[in-house]
Amino acid sequence: MNKESAEFSKIFSFFVLTVVVLFLFCAAKTTLINGATEQRKAVLGFRELLPTPVPYPRNKNIYPLSEITASSAIVIDADSLVALYEKNINFRLPIASLSKIMTALVSLENYRLDQNLRVNNTKVDGSLIKLVEGEEISVENLLYGLLVASGNDAAEILAENFPQGTAGFVWAMNQKAQELKLENTRFSNPIGFDEENQYSSAKDLARLTIFALKNPIFSKIVATEKIDISDTTGTIIHSLKNTNELMGKIEGVKGVKTGTTENAGECLVSLIERDGRRIVIVILGSKNRFEETKALINWVFDNFEWKSISF
To answer: What is the C-alpha separation between 229 and 70, in angstroms, rounded?
Structure first.
């Protein structure tokens, strides 16, 4: 081998060695970075599993709650989801027009608010907003009629205009109940008439209500005390007043839904917003739903305080 070949061989060997060293260094660095990233992900993943710091209710036991006549009831803090009071919360009971909470939810998920529906059937029993046969009215106004004045005719029109008709609408109600894991809930009509397969429980209704309240349209409508709605021409006026007698009388009551039938008795679901807290109260089978809800409201805010828990 001549001198030039030997020199070239040395240079080439040095170059190869340099490339190998650089490759090994980069590989090691990448491994360290990836390892650190995975470790960071693990730490972040653990933190993400921890509960978000939230004020939790604590009972100061200032005074006991008097017995209520309701067959079933629950009081729940809507933010921490802590139950403050329970009575037969899993009993399957008729719920009358509380069914319309689900009727509204299915309508909100399947119709546009500005969609106009035709009134073809006005032969409905019970509470009515007095829809006129042949009138066209928006879904939004029907929802006001449904939730504010508990109009059975509004529920009927929302259901019968569903693409698969009333039967398809009721099927969608039951599908939504399954999706929300309402284990003691079944619907056979969109109005709340007493039927064998029309029932729910206080616990399921609290869960349904808290979910529905995430929809700002639902929250706005149920909190409405009075409103005038009209058909699409503005010539047919329906004056509505909220059926929840506590609204405007008891601090923080933001409505949700009333219900009464012979089998269900007096039923009421209420949202109370006070002192930065949101409380949902469900009363089923009561002899005096408004007074008993008022008693529960007073008991909660007199006896409970909220403490922050940090992690």
So the answer is: 34
